[in-house]
UniProtKB/TrEMBL annotation:
GO cellular component labels: cytosol
Gene3D superfamilies per record: RutC-like (3.30.1330.40)
Protein known as: Uncharacterized protein
Record-linked InterPro entries: RidA_CS, RutC-like_sf, YjgF/YER057c/UK114
Region forming the signal peptide: 1-18
Alphabetized CDD domains for the sequence: YjgF_YER057c_UK114_family
Organism domain of life: Eukaryota
């Protein structure tokens, strides 16, 4: 008891090795306010992009997308995708060390490739060397374009030491040999499922029937992973849908909607990617609240219902808000705002702000944002509009060109953030005992 009391009396920004996961609660004993802390890496330059290299909140670290740049030499390493993958993960290791953690805590990664058919195997070999055992969950897709000349960008989320990171093993489903990923990982009260396709996993064969049948099988696979961790699709808070063709959007939606009761959908982002592994039409990754963690659905007062779109504007798990992907749409008028990517970015973030506010959060406390552009050439105009929302300590971020977005939008932004926080370096939470 004395050691735990000493731990909670320390500033939460400093962290404690024995700190409980966010799902821990002892009613009537003490309460902990989550903290939002910018992670800074000694010797790394502060770049022109409006992002932080990582944000730490409670027991979780949200890293920005990292490419194979030598951060001190300020150049892309030579040697192609294998060398870039290794450098990107060394960069991640530095971020985790600066946050007080390690690569062992990584729970989920997104690997974004410029060329899937050429680079997937070389990336996999380099990636596998960093997790010889119990790798994180993962999704890997080819995007429309990356910034600069990078062949790969990797974004990861990780648990701090003492926050319960463990691999999920699914009865009846063998591990994916040759793929350096775990089917699922539990960490800090959440369950991270890997990106799944409409595959019969034991035989590694895609189901017949196109996008609708693949979506159904994909979500059945994800549900099995989540249930093995004591959760389930009904407790999912966020899903990412990657489509080979936006022409399959309607068929995917129809199959997808059958897995949740009306009004109970997770938040969601759905984009067209340039390529998926194998011949799949769709790949989906979901994040779910674990046992004992409260899950809520967020609706925004005054906004019309999302008829035909099986998603919630936002969800909450514990004290983290997960907003759906937002476009630059006037939600009352139901149409995109005029003015191009800058105005659409501004409106998309105002929409995200409204979702956060409906959940009792502030956009200033965003932890991680994902920006999908129709054309990577718009990145500067997007950045100028985006930066106005975070003049100081912006969230972690990754930004790519999608192969396609729903409708005619130039940009889509998805953010997650803290509902209640004490922000800033060295911030301390008041602890009541």
């Amino acid at each position: 008891m004395a050691s735990l009391a000493a731990c909670v009396l320390l500033t939460l920004a400093a962290g404690c090795a024995g700190a409980p996961p966010r799902s821990f609660a002892a009613p009537g004993w003490f309460a902990m306010a989550p903290t939002r802390e910018v992670v800074r890496v000694r010797g790394w330059p502060s770049g022109p992009m409006p992002l932080s290299f990582a944000i730490k909140a409670g027991g979780t670290v949200y890293a920005s997308g990292l490419a194979g740049f030598d951060m001190r030499a300020k150049r892309l390493v030579p040697g192609g995708v294998a060398a870039e993958t290794a450098q990107a993960l060394r960069n991640l290791e530095e971020v985790m060390t600066a946050a007080g953690g390690s690569l062992h805590g990584v729970a989920g990664c997104s690997v974004l490739l410029r060329n899937m058919s050429r680079d997937f195997q070389a990336m996999n070999r380099a990636y596998a060397a960093f997790w010889p055992e119990e790798p994180p969950s993962r999704v890997a897709v080819q995007v429309g374009a990356l910034q600069g000349e990078a062949s790969v960008e990797i974004q990861c989320t990780a648990a701090m030491p003492g926050y319960g990171r463990s691999v999920v093993h699914v009865p009846g489903i063998p591990e994916l040999k040759g793929f350096p990923l775990s089917l699922g990982v539990q960490a800090d009260g959440m369950v991270y499922a890997s990106g799944m396709q409409g595959m019969d996993i034991p035989t590694k064969r895609l189901v017949d029937g196109g996008a609708a049948a693949e979506t159904k099988k994909t979500l059945e696979n994800i549900d099995a992973i989540l249930k093995a961790a004591g959760s389930g699709l009904d407790r999912s808070v966020s899903c990412e849908v990657s489509l080979r063709s936006m022409g399959d959007f309607g068929a995917m939606n129809a199959a997808y909607s059958a897995f949740w009761q009306q009004g109970g959908y997770p938040s969601r982002v759905a984009v067209q990617v340039a390529d998926l592994a194998g011949k799949a039409a769709v790949e989906i990754r979901c994040l779910a609240a674990g046992q004992g963690l409260r899950r809520e659905v967020v609706s925004v007062p005054g906004w019309p219902g999302l008829h035909g779109f099986p998603l919630s504007m936002g969800t909450v798990a514990g004290e983290v808000v997960y907003a759906s992907g937002m476009q630059g749409m006037d939600m009352q008028a139901g149409k995109l705002v005029p003015g191009g990517v800058a105005e659409e970015t501004r409106q998309a973030l105002e929409n995200a702000r409204a979702v956060f506010a409906a959940a009792g959060a502030r956009l200033e406390d965003a932890l991680l944002c994902e920006v999908s552009l129709r054309d990577i050439k718009d990145v500067q105009a997007m950045n100028e509009a985006y930066a106005r929302f975070w003049p100081k300590d912006p969230p972690a971020r990754f930004c790519v060109q999608a192969a396609g977005l729903a409708g005619r939008a130039a940009v889509e932004v998805r953010c997650l953030g803290l509902r209640a926080s004490v922000s800033g370096p060295g911030a301390a939470a008041e602890v009541l005992i």
